[in-house]
Specification:
Chain lengths: 307, 239, 384, 233, 339
């Protein structure tokens, strides 16, 4: 007990020391790390919700975001709607789209082994990205928005401040979801369904509806984020793929079902990556840090649990 | 002739001491009843002996050898065998194959011999249609399979954790007869957890009572059941 | 060879059809085929194009070669984009040694894999080191022509994959007499998209010329982040193989210099380019957005003209004629073949230097194709 | 209150219920029979967890034969399943509350019902913060009973509730059931036939998916066949 | 047991056996057909077999319940090892492939010592992360691996002779299939299945979980590396993007599911159907065939959740599990009816 406490305190102080060093030596690395973490967390949190409750690794997660971003893009091109505003209609459309995908496909495989849903969503991902590819070609698209380059100057360093919207969005997602799960009846029912669907039925919970709604809500969040994503990134049919994998990693690092830890894991990885990138010629090693940290955290947790 | 002995065996989960300094010795030929209130620590005690949990404190000896740190699979091979309160058949194996695993790994037989031995044991216990999936078994068959699995490990010490729960009285009688027969034939030391006192009285020759993780009584049932603490904590007005 | 009089002459085309380059490359090639057929075909025979998707995968690409060679029994191979896929195809191509006009693969490794004395192999796309050398040439020429432009200090931001890192090492080797530094970044095309670290380093380095070698998906976000940290070098050069849709519409695009082989503005100085452009627009109702379109279009015509001149499909004869090629291409220049480091038939070596001006790509070098004068220095962000 | 007409059910090709009819009014009904007779299956059909091949189930004057499980529960059927079916990562308290929250009857006065349940099983109060998955087998059974009570059902179904409970608590549980049956319907399956006959008004003996005998408690208790088969110990 | 039972059992067993023989013959014909069907068939066959080996090996591990998302990692590692051995140390082709596989097996063993205490999604993610780590190392270790550009194999296997190349793949396929079938019948099958079903029960039955997992993980990884080495030497190069491509993880999973998991024949059949179907689709739908491919995967999972082989088993073969087993019959013969 006491040794684990010592380890924890040591870990915390090492982390704090690192952050202080960063602030002194390379403050922008910390800023960019936080911004980066926001993107990771905002994408991973909806995936964590689906994995925690419906127990599905949704390999179409990134593709759903891609579809949402394209929706926002076309809303912007046709109606001149700013993507930050179109995030709302996109969110609603994606909620319905999520429901539809769930009802037509995933729902029918819930009783099958877990892997069936995994490969099913892989099929869905493929259909989504390839369909968009057919319609919109692989050529990247991007809206040019002035506010994205908004910057601030601190002493003699200038840095982008727009990207702070991502951590803000992530925190909002997190708080809303936590309140939803702890405070609302549907949320509490969802937690129960996640742990024992059979048990949930016999206390009067509509399990199928809960699954569908949770999937829909997660799709809505990722849909909203699609609009935000579009403001910063170019979009193309394959843009979602790498985020699926990264989210999946983050969710596992956090521990399945643990939403706040997803945010914490994102923060850790965001800062770690941007610190590495701040070192000259460090960039090619940034993904390495990402994956090594994930493995280390997962292993450490398993060792701790075993002892 | 084998002997299992525990010394100050203790485990706590968080703040809760589930098994608290239990000293026990169990010898071949004995059938020991283990009773006590729900949550007294009976299952946990068995888990400690079988190596599923590691104790916070205390030692387990088998024939004088300290086996406390040994992994569960080694203990199984050394002759400590048990059934599970919450039965989980290996559902991707057939009935026969479930029983085979004990022979294959704890008793280290080859596949051919293990198959034959398992079949013989199953027929002995009145199980047939050995190629069935375990999901098609009824409770009685499941329980028999559970016992067969434990016996296939060629045990010296055998723990039965509520194997008779859910059997009706005819079936229970049959099971008691079976267990007595096996224990005698193989000169086993047997520990039996049951909440049905009829079973305890007709099967065991010695009883221990756990309460809040502590061993509060040890002796023949008639004696133990007169103990005030046992009466209030466990039996209530139900005797 | 296997085909007789009256049967069509077959071109086997392999592109990644799911990618804009292969999509437009294959479609442009089809235009060339149609043009030839409209003019009565080749040697009195119709021509046909069989296209197979490489799916950006070496094994699929190699299988496509095998299929075209044995089942479709094509006479020529055309196509190509990625070096990675091409590496997988080369061993199979070498077993058939059919006349090949390759429109892709910049990696020198691919050239190594083809090896010496493969006279059937024609490579249209410049190798990585060709591109580098042409930049040296171009910049020196520009610096001479416009003395106010200084090019002494270079910083290269390159994507960490094969394309970017090859660009960096080629540039380093070729610009060895100048001050040069570089830093890798992860392209948005593979899940990156954060350029802040590279841009900060570049800003601290304070270069005369800043070049980024990444992909189309990096273009706008990179500009936006440059603006956010107020990084505006005198020469801001982008060297992606293609640009995103409607990049020119952004005010960030203004005065960005770029490398390329082709731009619609070439229509003003080249009739072939215009013919090609109009043909593509009328057939597909969308603008050719990558140079793979004119390149693939050229590939078909170059072979067709050589066959016409040879008057036969005999391999030796056609190769001999191909080696004499003088093809005035839609890319502006006249394409000829000559040995490069290893292979004997290298086509284009020169890249063009262009600049975004008023939403259009204008050619500023080579001067013979120039459609505009360079704007220098890069307009600071605050003045846009 | 509950009436089952000619229920037939099967798992794949294995026919388990061969046309069972049975009624539960106010008061309590016991289902007895050997292992594998189909008692649990019957309960599952009442809940809609196993579909009927044919037959009809009426609860509270409503035909519920094709309604989904959660609707039946909301109409007032609660169950203590043989396999307990708790939420292992929720605390004891949360398990109890969720038992009430999704049913119209249980929702009304949760603190009150909670007190009642805690009074019956004091250990649950003591362990209200513990994760259900870490409870001992018998404690889990108590929690399952408590959770079913939280719904304030009109019909309480208990599938072998005494399984794994210590004798004193079994005794107490049956006392409580005896009291409850005055207010609500109770349907109970038990291997502990002697103890249950104390509680039930009427009993059915099921064998191989058919009712082979039925009668009120005293009749069954004095029936020599029942005596021989079920009351031996 | 009645003699009617016995008769029915014997009849059904014989029927099943005949059916099996028919399938074996058809399978063998299919496997050898590309030898006579031209080089295109052989090159397709060669990649079908690559995926087949990956899918079978993945299935061998998943039978223990351990789900690997790191197939591409060991596939790529094997490819790089075989290439570097050949290019930098002049080790001849086949020897380099085998050595590369062994080395990768050793690496897997070492990593397994640490990661095999993980379960479920955690293990899956860790293998996925390891695959990425391998890729990044190969990508950045330029002096040895050629870095982002990759590296050429000095000499393509069998100088590009497609008969020999295909033959080589067939030999690998047969070996891997045989190994998988052997494992299904040997002691380790019971250990792995028990671990899959319930670890606490497994250890209580004397099964050393760690040792068994370590063994199978090392073997399976070596097989995947073998396939990767073969791939590198057949196509003549390695590069981080091609050899660690996520498709080498996802497609084998899809194949195993499509064909039917927890068996040898499921992945084998799945690889053939999906591989051949992919080639056909793109001939008829050059632009957009992947949409159709995705839809087919979805439909199969919705309507044939146990996979193609599962359906065949259920529809064509007789279910004999409700008959007395062979051992029961023998015992009852020697001892008379059991009590
Ligand atoms: N993993 C755990 N974490 C926390 N507490 C635990 C854990 N496992 C068991 N316990 C607690 O330890 C005590 C002993 O449990 P155990 O299962 O041994 O009881 P038991 O005597 O077998 O009871 P029963 O007769 O109900 O089966 C219980 O209070 C239980 O809640
Ligand atoms: N999920 C299932 N799949 C296949 N067969 C099943 C399933 N569940 C139960 N059975 C079979 O149905 C029959 C009836 O089982 P059921 O559980 O209803 O009996 P029960 O009377 O409740 O017995 P017990 O006293 O053992 O609980 C048994 O033969 C059992 O093997
Ligand atoms: C310039 C392009 C042809 C780049 C391509 N990806 C290559 O590898 O060669
Ligand atoms: Mg217990
Ligand atoms: Mg039952």
């Amino acid at each position: 007990m006491s040794t684990s406490k010592i380890v924890r305190i040591a870990g915390f102080s090492a982390g704090a020391l690192f952050v202080i060093m960063l602030i002194v030596l390379k403050p922008t690395a910390l800023i960019y790390g936080i911004q980066r973490a926001g993107i990771y967390a905002a994408i991973a949190i909806p995936m964590a919700l689906i994995l925690g409750i419906v127990h599905i690794v949704n390999l179409a997660h990134g593709e759903m975001m891609m579809v949402a971003a394209y929706l926002s893009y076309y809303l912007a091109r046709t109606f001149g709607l700013d993507p930050l505003l179109s995030a709302i209609p996109t969110g609603i459309i994606m909620f319905l789209f999520g429901l539809m995908i769930f009802r037509t496909t995933i729902q029918h495989t819930l009783k099958a082994p877990e892997l069936n849903q995994l490969i099913l969503t892989f099929g869905v991902a493929m259909v989504l990205s390839q369909t968009v590819n057919l319609i919109a070609t692989s050529q990247p698209r991007k809206l040019s928005l002035d506010y994205v380059s908004a910057s601030a100057t601190l002493g003699d360093i200038s840095f982008g401040i727009y990207d702070f919207v991502f951590p803000v969005v992530a925190i909002i997602f997190l708080i809303v979801l936590l309140l939803f799960l702890k405070r609302t009846k549907l949320g509490k029912a969802a937690l129960a369904v996640g742990q024992n669907p059979n048990g949930a039925q016999i206390v009067g919970i509509n399990v199928q509806l809960t699954y569908a709604l949770i999937f829909g809500i997660a799709s809505m969040l990722i849909g909203i984020f699609g609009g935000f994503f579009l403001t910063k990134f170019s979009i193309f049919p394959a843009v979602g793929g790498s985020y699926t994998m990264k989210s999946f990693c983050l969710v596992a690092m956090a521990g399945i079902g643990n939403l706040p830890m997803v945010a914490a894991a994102s923060l850790l990885l965001g800062i770690a990556e941007s610190s590495i990138m701040a070192v000259p010629h460090g960039a090619p090693w940034a993904p390495m840090i990402f994956f090594v940290l994930i493995v280390v955290v997962i292993l450490v947790r398993s060792f701790r649990r075993a002892s | 002739m084998s002997e299992l002995r525990t010394e100050n065996l203790t485990i706590s989960f968080g703040g809760l001491v589930a098994v608290d300094s239990v000293n026990l010795s169990l010898k071949s030929g004995e059938i020991l009843g283990i009773i006590g209130p729900n949550g007294a620590g009976k299952t946990t005690f068995i888990n400690l002996i079988a190596g599923i949990h590691n104790p916070t404190r205390g030692t387990v000896y088998l024939d004088g050898e300290d086996i406390t740190g040994k992994p569960a699979h080694d203990r199984a091979a050394m002759g400590i065998s048990r059934t599970f309160q919450l039965i989980n058949p290996l559902r991707n194996l057939t009935l026969l194959e479930n029983v085979m695993t004990g022979y294959l790994f704890a008793s280290k037989m080859n596949t051919h011999d293990a198959r034959n031995a398992a079949a013989r044991l199953c027929l002995d216990l009145g199980l047939d249609r050995l190629n069935r999936q375990t999901s098609n078994l009824n409770i009685l068959e499941t329980k028999k399979m559970e016992i067969a699995k434990a016996l296939a490990c060629n045990p010296k010490i055998l723990f039965l954790d509520e194997v008779m729960a859910g059997l009706n009285s005819t079936e229970t009688k049959e099971a008691i007869r079976l267990i007595k027969h096996i224990a005698e034939r193989q000169n086993l030391a047997v520990g039996v957890v049951e909440h049905v006192m009829g079973v305890i009285t007709s099967l065991t020759n010695r009883v221990i009572v756990l309460d809040n993780g502590q061993l509060i009584a040890d002796g023949p049932y008639t004696e133990v059941s007169r103990n005030e603490r046992v009466k209030t904590a466990y039996l209530g007005g139900a005797v | 060879e296997g085909s007789s009089e009256g049967d069509p002459i077959k071109f086997g085309g392999i592109w990644p059809l799911g990618d804009i380059t292969g999509d437009q490359g294959s479609k442009a090639a089809r235009i060339a085929i149609d043009e030839i057929n409209e003019q009565g075909g080749l040697l009195g025979r119709p021509v046909e194009l069989v296209v197979i998707d490489s799916e950006l995968s070496p094994e699929k690409g190699a299988a496509a070669v095998e299929r075209l060679a044995t089942i479709d029994q094509v006479d020529f191979f055309v196509g190509g984009m990625s070096s990675g896929v091409h590496l997988g195809q080369i061993p199979v191509m070498k077993t058939y040694q059919k006349i090949t006009m390759w429109t892709g693969a910049a990696s020198h490794l691919a050239e190594e894999a083809v090896g010496e004395n493969q006279d059937w192999y024609f490579h249209l796309h410049p190798w990585d080191y060709n591109q580098g050398a042409s930049y040296v040439e171009g910049w020196n020429a520009i610096a001479q022509e416009y003395p106010e432009i200084s090019i002494d200090r270079w910083f290269l931001a390159y994507e960490e994959g094969a394309f970017g890192s090859a660009s960096y090492s080629a540039t380093q080797a070729l610009f060895s007499d100048m001050e040069i530094d570089g830093e890798a970044f992860q392209s948005a095309a593979v899940g990156g998209g954060d350029y802040t670290a590279v841009l900060e380093r570049a800003k601290a380095y304070d270069p005369d010329v800043f070049i980024w070698a990444g992909y189309d998906a990096d273009a706008l976000p990179l500009m936006e982040q440059s603006k956010a940290i107020d990084f505006a070098p005198p020469l801001y050069v982008g060297a992606p193989p293609g640009w995103p849709a409607s990049f020119g519409e952004s005010n960030l695009a203004e005065n960005v210099t770029l490398y390329g082989m082709w731009a619609p503005s070439l229509n003003e100085v080249s009739d072939v380019s215009k013919t090609f452009y109009d043909g593509y627009m009328s057939k597909y109702d969308s603008e050719p957005a990558t140079y793979f379109a004119p390149l693939s279009y050229s590939a078909i015509h170059i072979i067709a003209e050589a066959v016409e001149r040879a008057g036969t499909l005999d391999k030796e004869a056609v190769i001999a004629e191909l080696q004499k090629t003088q093809y005035e291409s839609a890319l502006g220049e006249t394409i000829t073949f000559s040995p490069s480091n290893i292979i004997s038939n290298q086509g284009i070596r020169q890249q063009k230097i262009l600049q975004w001006q008023n939403g259009r790509q204008e050619v500023i070098w080579p001067f013979e194709f120039a459609t505009s004068e360079p704007v220098y220095p890069f307009t600071p962000w605050s003045e846009r | 209150m509950l009436s089952i007409k000619n229920a037939k059910a099967a798992y794949g090709k294995i026919q388990v219920l061969h046309g069972l009819s049975l009624d539960v009014g106010r008061g309590s009904v016991g289902l007895f029979g050997p292992n594998g007779a189909g008692k649990t299956t019957l309960i599952n059909t009442i809940l809609g967890l196993v579909p009927l091949q044919s037959g009809k189930i009426v609860f509270d004057f409503k035909d519920v034969t094709t309604r989904p499980t959660h609707e039946r529960v909301r109409l007032g059927i609660s169950v203590v399943p043989q396999e307990r079916e708790l939420f292992p990562w929720l605390s004891v308290y949360e398990n109890l509350v969720i038992g009430a929250e999704n049913t119209p009857l249980g929702r009304d006065d949760i603190p009150q019902t909670l007190e009642e349940v805690y009074a019956i099983f004091p250990i649950l109060r003591e362990r209200h913060g513990q994760l259900a998955g870490t409870l001992s087998g018998g404690q889990q059974r108590m929690l399952a009973v408590g959770r079913a009570l939280m719904a304030r059902p009109k019909l309480l179904i208990l599938d072998e509730p005494s399984l794994g409970l210590q004798p004193s608590i079994v005794h107490e549980l049956f006392n409580i059931l005896k009291e409850m049956k005055e207010r609500v319907g109770v349907l109970i399956t038990e291997q502990n036939v002697r103890e249950s006959l104390r509680v039930v008004d009427k009993g059915y003996i099921i064998e191989n998916g058919r009712i082979v005998l039925s009668g009120n408690a005293d009749e069954l208790a004095s029936n020599p066949e029942v005596e021989k088969a079920y009351l031996g110990l | 047991m009645s003699s009617a039972d016995l008769k029915a059992l014997q009849k059904d067993n014989a029927y099943n056996r005949n059916l099996e023989i028919i399938f074996m013959v058809v399978g063998a014909i299919l496997l050898l057909a590309p030898m006579f069907a031209g080089p295109y068939a052989r090159i397709i066959g060669r990649s079908v077999i690559t995926y087949m080996i990956l899918a079978v090996s993945w299935d061998m591990l998943v039978r223990s319940g351990q789900l690997s998302f790191g197939i591409a990692g060991f596939f790529g590692l094997g490819g790089y090892a075989a290439t570097v051995l050949a290019a930098n140390y002049n080790i001849p082709g086949i020897a380099a492939i085998i050595l590369g596989a062994l080395l990768s097996g050793v690496v897997a063993y070492g990593l397994g010592l640490i990661i095999l205490r993980l379960r479920g999604m955690y293990f899956a993610i860790t293998t996925l992360a390891l695959a990425e780590i391998f890729r990044i190392i190969m990508h950045n270790w330029t002096p040895v691996t050629g870095g982002p550009n990759g590296k050429l194999v000095p000499q393509v296997l069998f100088a590009g002779n497609s008969y020999l190349q295909y033959g080589f793949m067939v030999v690998m396929a047969v070996l891997v299939i045989a190994l998988s079938e052997y494992m299904r019948r040997s002691k380790i099958h019971y250990a792995l299945t028990a671990i899959h079903d319930n670890e606490v029960v497994a250890k209580s039955n004397g099964i050393n979980i760690y040792k068994n997992l370590l063994f199978i993980f090392a073997v399976v990884s070596a097989i995947q590396a073998l396939a990767g080495g073969g791939y590198a030497h057949l196509f003549g190069f390695v590069s981080p993007e091609s050899n660690f491509n996520a498709n080498y993880t996802l497609i084998p999973l899809a194949i195993a599911l499509f064909g039917g998991m927890y068996s040898t024949w499921g992945p084998v059949v799945g690889a053939v159907i999906l591989g051949v179907m992919g080639e056909f689709l793109k001939l008829y739908i050059p632009y957009g065939h992947l949409v159709v491919y995705g839809i087919i995967i979805i439909l199969v999972l919705l309507f044939m959740p146990q996979g193609v082989v599962g359906i065949f088993k259920a529809k064509l073969f007789k279910n004999t599990s409700n008959y007395p087993s062979k051992e029961e019959l023998e015992l009852s013969e020697t001892k008379g009816e059991p009590a």
